[in-house]
Amino acid sequence: MDTNKPGLRHSQISEEIIEQVERQLAEPPSLWLNLTGAQILEEEGQDSKDIVLPNNRSQVTHIAIDIGGSLAKILYYVRDTTSPSSSSSEVHENVSDRGGRLSFVKFETSKIDDCIQLMKQLIQDHARESRRKPVTVMATGGGAYKFYDRMSEELNVEVIREDEMECLIKGLNYLVSCIPGEVFMLNPETCEMAFEEQFHDEKYPHMLVNIGSGVSILKVTGPSKFERIGGSSLGGGTLWGLLSLLTHASSYDEMLELSKKGDNAAVDMLVGDIYGENVGYERFGLKDSTIASSFGKVFRENKRLDEFLPEDIARSLLLAISNNIGQIAYLHAQKHNVKNIYFGGSFIRNHVQTMHTLTYAIKFWSNQTMNAYFLRHEGYLGVFGAFLKYARAESNVPVPPIS
Ligand SMILES: Nc1ncnc2c1ncn2[C@@H]1O[C@H](COP(=O)(O)OP(=O)(O)OP(=O)(O)O)[C@@H](O)[C@H]1O
Ligand SMILES: CC(C)(CO)[C@@H](O)C(=O)NCCC(=O)O
Q1: Euclidean distance between CA atoms 345 and 182, whole angstroms
Q2: Confidence category of residue 401, pLDDT binned at 50, 70, 90
Q3: Which sequence ranges form a coiled-coil region, renumbered to this chain (predicted)?
Q4: pLDDT of 363-381, one tens digit each?
Q5: pTM of the entire structure?
Q6: Nearest bound ligand to CA 27?
Q7: Class of domain 184-267+308-375
Q8: What distance in Å separates the CA atoms of residue 206 and residue 336, rounded to the nearest whole number?
Q9: CATH fold group of domain 21-180+382-395
Q10: Does the beta carbon of 234 lie inside 6 Å of ligand 2?
């Protein structure tokens, strides 16, 4: 393990591995649930631009939504007639016992109209069969309160609100315990993913660092026992907002793409910029290539914004925010005596550089004693938790029990 302090200018990650990992994590896969188990369905994911609505053999029976400050995440449950292991033409007779598919879609919260429209369509398709029980919508996140009246009126169904932190923890604990292949670690040297069935003996306590618009840090001591031990307003919304001011990128993914090509040393002040090239402050583990001050070089360069490369700015800001969150996470874990840290929230977007920075920070500061874990459905913990609360109460949704 490299002993350099986090915040190094470059990380030696092979392009090939980055591509490999990011291809594998491109979009959150659908899940299949039935009474005896749950699994990830490895197939093309969906984005709001190419949503495939269920066909008429299937029924959307449950919808959950998590409306945050930046993104609204929808999950819909389709009681399907085909099992994942059968060919698409094979139809099972006893449909109600077969289980069903959970699909995940996200929208920008600013496009809440489109989001409500999608739910409306799913509900209307379901309602065509008058004998069916009406769909109930489970809503969480701040928007469950902000848009409650609108959703109730426009959807014309019961909307049940659930606390966002409770939902996050329910979703996390279920995904970790019940979905094989959901949780992974990143090798801090090579960035290869490591999937293991059992990462650690002690299930509790663990910590969730949820990086959404802002950051919430939760200590979890039991399946539904947790406390919010910290937070930070420097989160995903900060990166998204500042990069939309400072670069021409029009989407979050474009910003992440830019950051891959940048050299943050063009804007960050490195230890070597202060001590002299090839001279560091080794006595305290500060190499010449360590970032001494994020964006610290900008002022003395005396250049206009358009004279800096957007790629360099994107990389610098992503590193600054990820390092800061990694360090706060470590400090909270140390203070609360927690070894295993799960990182969630859409900020991560399964982006290798971000996961690497977080992993590196945790490993370095804890002297290798703490672990950083990531999840394939990182941005969907809350919406999944909201669904589980309802599914549990409803006997007709086959959800395998938590192990
Ligand atoms: N397609 C995207 N568009 C915009 N932001 C994205 C996208 N994908 C990932 N992000 C990042 O994810 C962040 C939002 O994460 P998430 O959905 O977990 O939080 P939220 O629920 O909106 O926020 P909060 O919980 O703080 O209310 C954004 O601020 C941005 O940094
Ligand atoms: C306000 C919430 C909880 C909304 O999800 C989130 O954005 C957050 O945790 N923000 C950080 C607030 C703080 O602790 O400084």
Answers
A1: 14
A2: low
A3: none
A4: 999 999 999 999 999 999 9
A5: 0.91
A6: 1
A7: alpha beta
A8: 10
A9: Nucleotidyltransferase; domain 5 (3.30.420)
A10: no
